[in-house]
Amino acid sequence: MLDPLRDIFRQLRSTAPFWSLRGVAETQESLAVRQDAPEPPRLAIDRGAMLTAITESGYGYCATSDLSRAGLQAALDRASMWAEVTRAASVHHFDPRRMPVPRGEFRPDPSSEPIRSRRELLELLAEECRGASIDARVVERVVSLDRRDVEHLYLTSHGGDVQQRFRYTVPQARVVANRGIETQSRSFEHAQQGGPDAIERSGFIGCGARLADEALQLLGAPNCPTGAMDLLLMPDQMMLQIHESIGHPLELDRILGDERNYAGTSFVTVGMFGTYQYGSELLNVTYDPSLPAEIATFAFDDEGSPAQKTWLIRNGILARPLGGHFSQLRAGMEGTANARASSWNRPPIDRMANLNVEAGQSTLQDMIASIERGVLMRTNVSWSIDDSRNKFQFGCEWGELIEHGRIRGVVKNPNYRGVSATFWRSLRMVGDPGTFEIHGTLYCGKGEPNQGIHTGHASPPCLFAGVSVFGGDAP
């Protein structure tokens, strides 16, 4: 869809020594079944381009949905004007000679090509919705599917040419059970790259009946106990823990103060890298844009930097921030290829992508057996974290009490709280490769104007010692 832009781009002219075009074309389809009734399908098609111009110390950009030569030239003229105007006011020295000149391509695995009709997908959703209707106490059943096909084209005046295509398939489900004044819910979301193959490997098939059964179990379960105890976080909750207390604190633009007036700063400072004990020696965290199924896998970021696996925390020591090309120049340190924009009408900013905790050596059975008293938690339901991404409090949908190395039963309303670095230093066991799971989310907000973007987080289960845990009846 964006291929004609190459010929048009070669005809554009600018007074700036460097300019670029970043085109995005996205088709999104949403299907849903609620209480056994199909909801109207939603189809959205969006395309446009961002033109960027860079001069000595100046930077300007302008977005447009007019992809004609006249429309793109007008946007480039405006970007060039802003680049010239900002030369005297910029707090950073932009150097057009240091811009990447990338060339490459990224395409989905052929096995992820769509092979199911809309009718077949709606029938699949309807079957899962019916499967959740196992008891009169189940008062709400919703299943949905979000499919997106996205094409990115990045061209530069110096000869850069990158084309990337992505396919996302995200099945979701939610079941709510009620008895008197007690309401409990269980949900499912699995955000990965791929087509129908992503549905198959996600565990979505059969989830309706399972979620309903678990919601009913929660209705009759006791509240989670309160006190300092071991906490075993399963991968779908580790996703949120990684995202909030590692991902956002390590974004370099936040560390440099860019988000101060909107989403807050970070407790991390530039001087911490290379020496700071972020977690126990078992904590190893990578930025890894190479795992095929993970939702933020790509070959180049939106500034044209080539993506590769990078260690951010190694053996507990903070090693490198999540900072793209310009943030690296500003801070004078190495970062990662994670300058990303949510669409064609937003500029790239530092965003976590595939941020993962690497697998350790413990089986899930070993971790459970080592717990004298603790709680297993999965599936986030609430989160709160301070402006410096330090003190946090998270709640989960599902809990299981563990005593003397054995699971004793389900507990409801499990919550825990802590301080980021203190919490990660309490990490005492990490699941082995057999427990490693890939998860992700479509919705991470940051920036002004706001950008909602997808991020991937893969992890094994992790066991933490001496965590402040509490239930729904805690004072």
Could you describe the 3D structure shown?
Helix 3 (118-131) packs parallel to helix 5 (207-219). This protein has 475 residues and is α+β, with helices and mostly antiparallel strands. The chain has ten helices and 24 strands. The model has no long low-confidence stretch (mean pLDDT 95).
Percent strand equals: 35-45%
User: Count of DSSP helices?
Assistant: 10
Rg over CA atoms, rounded to whole Å, is: 24 Å
Secondary structure: number of strands: 24
Give the uncertain stretches in residue-range form. Answer: none
Helix content: 10-25%
User: Which descriptor suits the 3D outline?
Assistant: globular
Tell me the major beta sheet.
Answer: 9 strands, mixed
- CA(first)-CA(last) distance: 58 Å
Structural class: alpha+beta
Question: Which key phrases capture this entry?
Answer:
alpha+beta; 9-stranded mixed sheet; globular
